[in-house]
Design brief:
By secondary structure, the chain is α/β, with parallel strands linked by helices. It has a single domain, classed as 3-Layer(aba) Sandwich (Rossmann fold). An 8-stranded mixed beta sheet has the order 3-2-1-4-5-6-7-8, sandwiched between helices. The radius of gyration is 18 Å and the shape is globular. The two termini are 33 Å apart.
Length: 261
């Protein structure tokens, strides 16, 4: 499978701002043929599209308003009809809302699984596709534990398990579709800067905990995602975390369950 970004058609959910917008810019900078940006925030999405068209050209970026919980079929059909083949899907859309367990699980986990399977079927070579890659965004809290956001933790743990199973080597051999997981470290985004945790009286401890860790910019995640696309094997999990300023690199996460007894 070709791992060169040049000439690829990329679909990114949650791409109007934050991590998704940074990913969009990074893939355009590396030569992607087209990035299809999806987000429920139409105003921000259209503003980002207009700015990116000025920098990269009218034919390399397109925005579609999309709610990942409800719009999969309509958006998938539009993408396939207009753009034919998709080489890379990045399931980036996510929420951190401990006041709403159903929204958290439906956006972070169920929608991600549904989008993955839909595009997996489109890409798989044993069903007439050309192969491809799906990058699912989990979190450092998909395998680390903190006491402030159990619903969010559960949703991101599930992303890793799902992605490693669908991306298992046996499935890859049949389908030609690579499934890789990205775990971003703490990153300055609207969601991370204003977390909605379960017990509000724990917010001072939560903020103290967060301040004790390294933070990075969305651009660091954008560059790291490109790097993961270029070198990540199927069913692997990758961490992008560091001091910021472009100094950190993506590195593979080793899971205890993979180690021999």
């Amino acid at each position: 499978m070709a791992r060169d970004v040049k000439g690829k058609v990329v679909v990114i959910t949650g791409a109007a701002d934050g991590l998704g917008l940074a990913m969009t810019k990074s893939f355009l900078q590396k030569g992607a043929k087209l990035v299809i940006s999806l987000d429920v925030n139409e105003k921000a999405g259209k503003e980002a599209e207009a700015t990116l068209k000025l920098e990269y050209g009218d034919d390399r970026i397109v925005f579609y308003k999309c709610n990942v919980q409800t719009d999969l079929e309509a958006i998938y059909n539009k993408i396939v009809a207009k753009h034919k083949n998709v080489d890379l899907l990045i399931n980036n859309a996510g929420v951190l809302d401990e006041f709403n367990i159903r929204r958290t699980i439906e956006v972070n986990t169920i929608a991600l699984m549904e989008w993955s399977v839909k595009f997996y079927e489109h890409m798989r070579i044993d069903k007439g596709g050309k192969g491809g890659t799906i990058i699912n965004v989990s979190s450092i809290y998909g395998y680390r534990i903190a006491p402030y956001s159990p619903y969010y933790h559960a949703s991101k743990f599930a992303v890793i398990g799902f992605s490693r199973s669908l991306g298992h080597e046996d499935n890859f051999k049949r389908s030609g579709v690579r499934i890789v997981t990205l775990c971003p470290g703490l990153t300055h985004t609207n969601m991370a800067n204003d977390p909605k945790i379960m017990e509000e009286d724990m917010m001072p401890q939560c903020k103290e905990y967060l301040l004790a860790h390294d933070w990075q910019a969305p651009e660091d995640i954008g560059r790291g995602t490109v790097e993961i696309f270029e070198k990540g094997d199927t069913a692997t999990v990758w961490l992008v975390e560091g001091q910021g300023g472009g100094h950190q690199r993506a590195r593979k996460v080793t899971h205890a369950m993979d180690r021999p007894n």
